[in-house]
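Below is our example:
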Amino acid sequence: MTDGSVDAVQASPIKIEPVDAKVADAALRLMRLLEQPKALFALRSGILRELHYWLLESRHGSAIRRLGTEQSQADRIGRVIRVLRQQYGQTLRIETLARLAGMSEASFHKHFRAITTLSPLQFQKQLRLIEARRLMLASGETITNAAYAVGYLSVPQFTREYSRLFGAPPRRDIQLSGGSCN
């Protein structure tokens, strides 16, 4: 396997680069199988295995391998992310999350941001807003009920943060989806 440089990945966690032709080919074949359930059942594991191989052989293969290493920073941050996903509506203290990751608070912040490009608080806020959006658009919840359900104590604060993330206030999203804002 090639050992690609990860300096650029560590300096800037999100980076857009052209996709390797072999990766693109495998991904495209996998997507085309979505329209053919029988073929998908028979071929998906082989194509996924091929896709994994080409990704690990790519320029960023070493960084990808590190993501799956047990007790790596990525693995420990992944544990925290799972807790945040399960408990997004609760107030979680940074010291508790850092302890869960087995890191100091400063190290935890640094590694969390490197992996997610967000602070833990920003990450939790996005989880809350995404879930609130789902509740309003898919389940018909009111803005107020959705805000409280995901842990917001202030509906105006919820509306401001929702608008900042999604580019429109919740009322407009609900109206565009054909729902009612009651």
